[in-house]
Amino acid sequence: MRIDPSRPLQMAEVPTPENVRPRRLRHHPLVRELVRETELSARDLILPLFVRPGHGVRNEISSMPGNYQLSVDTLVEEVGQAVDLGVRGFILFGIPSFKDATGSSALEDEGIVQQALRALRAAYRDSVLLITDECLCEYTDHGHCGPLGEYGGRTDVDNDATLPLLAEQCVSHARAGADMVAPSGMMDGMVAAIRRGLDDDGFTWLPIMSYAAKYASGFYGPFRDAAESPPQFGDRSGYQMDPGNSNEALREVALDLAEGADIIMVKPALAYLDIVRRVKDRFGVPVAAYNVSGEFAMVKAAAAKGWIDERRVTLEILTSIKRAGADMILTYSARDVARWLK
Ligand code: PBG
Predict the structure, then answer these.
(1) What is the pLDDT of residues 55-111, one digit of tens each?
(2) What's the CA-to-centroid distance between 136 and ligand 1, angstroms?
(3) Which of 55, 169, 220, 229 is buried most, with the most CB atoms less than 10 Å from its CB?
(4) What is the pTM for the complete model shown?
(5) Is there an atom of ligand 1 within 6 Å of 133 CB?
(6) Given CA atoms 94, 99, 101, 105 in this order, what sign does their dihedral have?
(7) At residue 113, what are phi and psi to the nearest 5 degrees?
(8) 260-313 pLDDT tens trace
(9) Which residue of 46, 134, 135 sits with most ligand 1 atoms within 8 Å of its CB, as the best mutation to test the pocket?
(10) In which band, very low, low, confident or very high, does the pLDDT at 175 lie, cut at 50, 70 and 90?
(11) CA distance to 130, 165, 184, 325, 329, per residue, from 267 (Å)
(12) For residue 15, what pLDDT is reported?
């Protein structure tokens, strides 16, 4: 059957392989490259790093092979090696020297993340982008993301008491050299409180990457080993989102944008690619996706068993996250990927 281009197509005469052959674009490897819609680059990636007190510390996190709890000195080395591979963005998590009910060690000038920021800034100046995770769960003795209160007989995080603490944490990190802050506590009003705090301190230029749609997820398991931050009772369902919800994610994103968020994060990534796509389509703002610890650990474990090809699957997963609409990806694979793409 031949198609007459001057005539509209009828259903009965849909093109046949005689004239339309999608495989023509797949035959030559260089044509495949020309028509590729999504390309992964080391520039898209942000590497999470864990810093703790001490000297010469390099504790491998057993559930996250190749990732370590580092002291400030070994962190500086680690960042240097990642930069050599082509990684430019880093997000820092702190394991403090003490924990208490309000997470006060998060706010100290000599806090662990503050020390790390100053050391990295001195070592690498503007050649690295330093982002800080802003949350209190690593710093509270109960492991929840802010001080607690009693609400209708249930213990939960005191939202409004947490806001000024988050603002103070962000200002302290900004003063120590952070380029961007990333609040992850899912508190109502956190972006507005942080924006006001930063602006009042002169950091009007400093962007906020908000964990706007963060789900209460089983995929955070290995991270909680790494950051020593599991909740000591209950779970985070009182502040993180229900995995079944999608419209609610759009409401959360709209609120955070209205409050001044510059980049919107969806987390986890892989089980929430539909959310990444909806957020990108609806708002058209820069979107980050967090390829979280459990997603990383699953690939590592299956690869260690020889059940999957780690490199191929990792690149496929990260490409799919970009294809879904993410502009940037936080991933523990950043070093490996940068090496593979070189
Ligand atoms: C802290 C925070 C968590 C993660 C990032 N920031 C843990 C949590 O919410 O329990 C998880 C990251 C990962 O699993 O890789 N609020």
Answers:
(1) 999 999 999 999 999 999 999 999 999 999 999 999 999 999 999 999 999 999 999
(2) 11
(3) 169
(4) 0.94
(5) yes
(6) negative
(7) -70, -40
(8) 999 999 999 999 999 999 999 999 999 999 999 999 999 999 999 999 999 999
(9) 135
(10) very high
(11) 19, 23, 10, 13, 10
(12) 62
What secondary structure letter does DSSP report for 244?
T
Site to substitute for ligand 1 among 45, 49, 64, 184, most atoms within 8 A of C-beta: 184
> What is the pLDDT averaged over residues 122-130?
97
* Residues 299, 313 contacting (CB under 8 angstroms): yes
Q: Is 342 a residue of the active site?
A: no
The neighbouring-strand residues paired with 94 are 51
Q: What residue type is assigned to position 245 of the chain? A: N
What DSSP element (H or E) covers 134? strand 129-134
- Give one word for 275, left, alpha or beta, with left for phi > 0 and alpha for psi -120 to 50: alpha
For ligand 1, whether the C-beta of 135 sits within 6 Å is: yes
pLDDT class of 160 with cuts at 50, 70, 90: very high
pLDDT of 253 higher than 90 = yes
DSSP for 271-333 reads GGHHHHHHHHHHH-S-EEEEE-HHHHHHHHHHHHTTSS-HHHHHHHHHHHHHHTT-SEEEETT
Catalytic residue among 267, 280, 300, 322: 267
Write out the two tokens for 95.
């394991």
Structure tokens at 313: 């699957």
Q: Quote the percentage of the chain above a pLDDT of 70.
A: 96
Query: What is residue 59's predicted lDDT score, i.e. its pLDDT?
Result: 96
214 assigned to active site: yes
95 in ligand 1 pocket by Cβ < 6 Å? Answer: no
Q: Is 71 in the pocket of ligand 1 (CB under 6 A)?
A: no
Domains and CATH numbers, the chain: 39-341 (3.20.20.70)
pLDDT, mean of residues 238-258: 97
